[in-house]
Amino acid sequence: MGSILEKITLYDILGYLLSGCFLEIIICLEYILEKWISTDGMLMQQKEALEKFNSFFIVAFIVGGYCLGLILSEGSMLINKKLGYENKIEYDNRAITDEILKKAILNTGLVEKQELEQRLSDEGTEDPQKIYGNLMYALLQHDEKYKRIHNYGSGKLMYRNLCGAMIVGGIYIIYRIFRMKWFHIWVIVCGIIYILGIGVLHSRYKKYCAKSQEYVRVWFAEKYLK
After folding, report:
1. What does R_g of the chain's alpha carbons equal in angstroms?
2. pLDDT digits (tens, 9 = 90+) for 151-184
3. Based on CB atoms within 10 Å of each CB, which residue in 67, 80, 188, 199 is the most buried?
4. d(CA 51, CA 63)
């Protein structure tokens, strides 16, 4: 029971809460910056605004961040699904061939050979993981021997949602910049750094996605070809 709660907590914190709160922080920082500019950087007024943050605000911030993280996750998942992005990511290696993986899937007893071949034909692919990837992951994550697979899944979700949070936050900031006419050199510099940050998060997402898919492939074959 403790192990299950530990996995749920890791999944929720990294996947949803962190990304949602991150987007909230971006918006809050933009709001504070706007107030700073409008008051000519008067520290006392900024200090008074910060002192209004109480325990209710903190609870609302956390709950709102979690809910926002769920929305970000659903949105980014839908976009990735429409684009078929995860299926386009190359694995680190292909030590486990498609034929070996087919045998492992059939050995679970949950899929008939005719069904497997039919679905592969309908989808126009030789890689069964593209069709049965969720089944493979589900059968592995409850096995203590392969519990690390959950960490890769959580990492992939975290980086994907953080990248989505930065993109949404960036759109909001661009809107505010044009509305407030903040056309300064420091805005351009911060914008370049911000874009680089999105690129880094997206790169990390791609790496964790490839690792997750490859480890699922290898460990699933190991488990069901004994």
Report:
1. 22
2. 788 888 888 888 888 888 888 888 877 877 777 7
3. 80
4. 20
- pLDDT score recorded for residue 2: 47
SS (H, E, C) the chain: CHHHHHHHHHHHHHHHHHHHHHHHHHHHHHHHHHHHHHCCCCHHHHHHHHHCCCHHHHHHHHHHHHHHHHHHHHHHHHHHHHHCHHHHCCCCCCCCCHHHHHHHHHHCCCCCHHHHHHHHHHHCCCCCHHHHHHHHHHHHHCCHHHCHHHHHHHHHHHHHHHHHHHHHHHHHHHHHHHHHCCCCHHHHHHHHHHHHHHHHHHHHHHHHHHHHHHHHHHHHHHHHCC
> How is residue 37 written in tokens?
């500019």
What tens digit of pLDDT does each residue of 140-155 get? 887 778 877 877 888 8
pLDDT at residue 103, as a whole number: 92
Residue type, 168: V
The answer to whether the Cα torsion of 15, 21, 27, 32 is positive or negative is: negative
Q: How far is 156 from 139, CA to CA, in rounded Å?
A: 18
